[in-house]
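Cont'd.
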Amino acid sequence: NAGVTQTPKFRVLKTGQSMTLLCAQDMNHEYMYWYRQDPGMGLRLIHYSVGEGTTAKGEVPDGYNVSRLKKQNFLLGLESAAPSQTSVYFCASQDRVVSNNQPQHFGDGTRLSIL
Amino acid sequence: GNSVTQMEGPVTLSEEAFLTINCTYTATGYPSLFWYVQYPGEGLQLLLKATKADDKGSNKGFEATYRKETTSFHLEKGSVQVSDSAVYFCALSRPGGGSQGNLIFGKGTKLSVKP
């Protein structure tokens, strides 16, 4: 079972460069999320998607864009990377929420450093 | 608003010691409550959950009881092992999915178990 797969696992960028993080899930989940994890801050929601072709802003969306062209993929883009975006990024997926007890399934993360 | 507060770490215990990690929450309505665990270099994994007051979630020797009267969901284990060393996150999820169903995380508590 692959579950949620994130690529790449590590990346170092220079300030101003752009890149795209890819998240793929094979569980046919409707909902997908992008979080960032910073020391002492826990996880914070960047953007999310409730279905193919739809995206919405989370708690900390500035400097990021997302796309969900296919149900199984959720892309996170940094158009012009800044040192403040140095973080570990996690993608998660979740089955359609009929009640509020559906867990989220996480990838192993992408460690991104911006110099 | 909705929030989760968990005890700050790090927590260092000897093998076979008793573990308690405190978690309290603030939420409107009736959230589900979760404990996630993050082993070094990995993503978050669901450890246990509880969906209504007085429910007890349990898994791998860990337990937590949903206490609505004290708005708490403390994690306990009677005898920890070295392999339990990880970061533990308490989280709540509101009904509905998308931003309504997304997880609100505590900041995490790092547990180190010494042989």
